[in-house]
Amino acid sequence: MRSFLKIIICFFLLTQAACPANARQALRIVSANGTLSEILVGLGLEKQIVGVDVTSTFPASLEKLPKIGHNRSIAAEGILALNPDVIIYTDQSMISPTVAKQLNSSGKKVVAFKHEYSKDGAIKLIREVGAYFNANAEAEKMVKALQADLTKIPVPANPKKLLFIYARGTGTLMVSGTGTSIDKMFQLTGHKNAVTAFSDFKPLTAESLITANPDVLVLFSSGLQSLEGMDGLLRVPGIANTNAGRNKKIISMDGQFLTGFGPRLGKAAFELSQKVK
């Protein structure tokens, strides 16, 4: 009998040793990226999240968690104070090299995931996060839902020129060129970016607005609010001289929803395409 019990105990210990540690224990997770936080919730790991960055706004329950800051303002001390087992972020999270070095030297597990702004990139990220946390089945459910959402995006008969304006009051106005998450979202809907002469973001000028002459202006909801709504935006020099301004064709959407390129990518692209009509 004793020999039999020893065999059972040994077998149990061996099988446990063969499993990754993060599959056997409830890890304390800090997420420095809103898309990763959303994926973690989809994987069923919300109760293990002990801290998030300010872009982690979906689902709303994440708002109750301690905040570690935003992008380059994130400090290692605030993260480490939460005593996490693992800290995750993406190559798009913009954590400073100094903070990344401090986290890596702290003895905590730090994992950076590559995040490409495309439908394939979104699917790959979901699967990689699912694999890391041993939740492949849950990840595949999210992937299937995302793929189903993507099939609902209509192909526009007459693609329009869209211009994204990043606003934080009238003192901070930038427009999106090519290569940004916004540019990739426009492509996903079948519409065109009104600005193709440069990549990334550049300051907004009245001359560039009139040259681009967009059919539709797109802003984050918070950005439009910072300009005091549509009336405030129309007072920005050059706006009223564009097709979008003359027709008051102005769209606002939640920033994380529009640019997250995660599980809700298909829903965001569909909503944008419906608003452009």
Describe the SSE topology:
Elements: H1 2-18, E1 29-31, H2 34-42, E2 49-52, H3 76-80, E3 86-90, H4 97-104, E4 109-113, H5 119-132, H6 136-150, E5 161-167, E6 173-176, H7 181-189, E7 192-193, E8 201-203, H8 206-212, E9 216-220, H9 221-226, H10 229-234, H11 243-247, E10 250-253, H12 255-259, H13 265-276
Helix pairs in contact: 5-6, 6-13, 7-13
- How many β-strand runs? 10
The arrangement of helices and strands along the chain is: HEHEHEHEHHEEHEEHEHHHEHH
Radius of gyration: 22 Å
CATH topology of the largest domain, what is it called?
Answer: Rossmann fold
Largest sheet, strands/sense/barrel = 6 strands, mixed
Assembly category:
single chain
Strand content: 15-25%
Based on secondary structure, the structural category is alpha/beta
Q: How many domains?
A: 2
| Annotated CATH homologous superfamily of the largest domain | Nitrogenase molybdenum iron protein domain
CATH architecture of the largest domain: 3-Layer(aba) Sandwich
Low-confidence stretches: 1-24
What's the helical proportion of residues?
40-55%
DSSP helix count?
13
User: N-to-C terminal Cα separation, in Å?
Assistant: 75 Å
Question: In CATH, what is the class of the largest domain?
Answer: Alpha Beta
Mean pLDDT: 91
User: What is the overall shape?
Assistant: globular
Structure description:
- The chain has 277 residues and is α/β, with parallel strands linked by helices.
- It folds into two domains: 23-150, Nitrogenase molybdenum iron protein domain (Rossmann fold, 3-Layer(aba) Sandwich); 161-276, Nitrogenase molybdenum iron protein domain (Rossmann fold, 3-Layer(aba) Sandwich).
- It contains 13 helices and ten strands.
- The protein has helices spanning 2-18, 34-42, 76-80, 97-104, 119-132, 136-150, 181-189, 206-212, 221-226, 229-234, 243-247, 255-259, 265-276; strands at residues 29-31, 49-52, 86-90, 109-113, 161-167, 173-176, 192-193, 201-203, 216-220, 250-253.
- The strands form two sheets. Strands 5, 6, 7, 8, 9 and 10 form a six-stranded mixed sheet that branches. A four-stranded parallel sheet has the order 2-1-3-4, with helices on both faces.
- The longest helix is centred in the N-terminal third of the chain and has 17 residues, at 2-18.
